[in-house]
Amino acid sequence: MIIQGTCVLEQLLTREEVAKKLNPSVGIRQLQKYLDLASLYLPEFEDFRDEENGGLDGRAKLTNWHLPILQKIRTYVLIKGSLKKVAIELKNHPEKFVGA
Fold first, then answer.
1. How many helices (H) and strands (E) does the chain have?
2. Which of 17, 11, 15 is nearest to 38 (CA)?
3. What pLDDT is stored for residue 50 in this prediction?
């Protein structure tokens, strides 16, 4: 039996790498804001919340699997014009950010 297809491996990325890969790219502080929003409303990012202090966990690892969701957040920020509007959208319609 022959199996054809593609295999995409999980690749660890630094925050700097992720910030540069977003289109258009962002700085680390802006990426941190996106991660904060994602960690509040998306299960895929729940590991980024620090249970002790309620903020972001700096030790949480980003991978290439996080990129599409962060890109959607980036795009929504560009369209909506503010993080507050994107936060409302994330809270009310998280499926818009994790779907295909």
1. 5, 2
2. 15
3. 83
- Region of 97 (left: φ > 0; alpha: ψ -120 to 50; beta: rest) is alpha
Q: What pLDDT sits at residue 3? A: 58
What is the pLDDT at residue 58? 82
**Structural element, H or E, at residue 82:** none
Q: Comparing C-alpha atoms, which of 100, 46, 99, 97 is closest to residue 76?
A: 97
What length is written for the chain? 100
What average pLDDT does the segment 17-21 reach?
A: 97
State the residue for tokens 């994330």.
Answer: 90
Helix axes 83-92, 28-41, angle to 10 degrees: 20
Q: Which residues pair with 13 in a beta bridge?
A: 62
